[in-house]
Design goal:
Structural class: alpha+beta
Number of strands: 5
CATH topology: Lambda Exonuclease, Chain A
Order of helices and strands: HHHEEEHEEHH
Helix content: 40-55%
Number of helices: 6
CATH architecture: Alpha-Beta Complex
Strand content: 15-25%
Number of domains: 1
Distance between the termini: 35 Å
Radius of gyration: 16 Å
């Protein structure tokens, strides 16, 4: 099984149509005000940190705190928190597959994740539990692979994310 990227995991939870379009090389994010705002928040928050740590062109860690052993993911809003959590859980899973020790509920030692929402002044700790890892491998990764291997675009499903989506013109024109 070819592993998806962290962005693909995020998009899977937001919209499988967006996931499919993005994975076909159709990038609409450069024209999006919401994406530009997210990049601005990412660039201006946590200025002292070494950002954008690319690992195998599969995951890109926003930054890593070596003293606390924490992978950070910076987001502008918690509206898509479920997608953010699974993206960060995928990062922890990927690091575990690379041989790094990742914290779990049974073992506090190892790498943890934190979702950072600087504009909300909110931080949420994420740990890769055995149940979440099992769900990720047995359901999410398999379903992402199914979506990506399909030759036809998934149907449009209108959600609250559609209003802000940079791909909306491709769904409703």
């Amino acid at each position: 099984m070819l592993l998806p990227t962290g962005t693909q995991i995020n998009y899977y939870f937001i919209c499988t149509r967006k996931l499919w379009l993005f994975s076909q090389g159709i990038a609409c994010e450069s024209d999006s005000d919401a994406v530009r705002m997210g990049k601005f928040i990412h660039e201006t928050s946590y200025k002292r940190e070494d950002k954008e740590i690319d690992i195998d062109s599969t995951i890109v860690l926003d930054w890593f705190d070596q003293k606390r052993n924490v992978v950070h993911e910076v987001k502008k809003s918690d509206k898509m928190e479920d997608a953010h959590q699974w993206q960060l859980l995928f990062y922890l899973f990927y690091l575990k597959q690379k041989g790094l020790q990742v914290a779990s509920q049974e073992n506090e030692e190892g790498i943890k994740g934190e979702l950072n929402y600087p504009t909300l002044r909110k931080i949420k700790t994420i740990i890769l539990s055995p149940d979440k890892e099992k769900y990720l491998t047995e359901h999410i990764l398999k379903d992402v692979e199914r979506v990506l291997s399909n030759d036809t675009i998934p149907c449009t499903t209108e959600t609250r994310a559609c209003k802000q989506c940079s791909y909306s013109e491709l769904c409703y024109c």
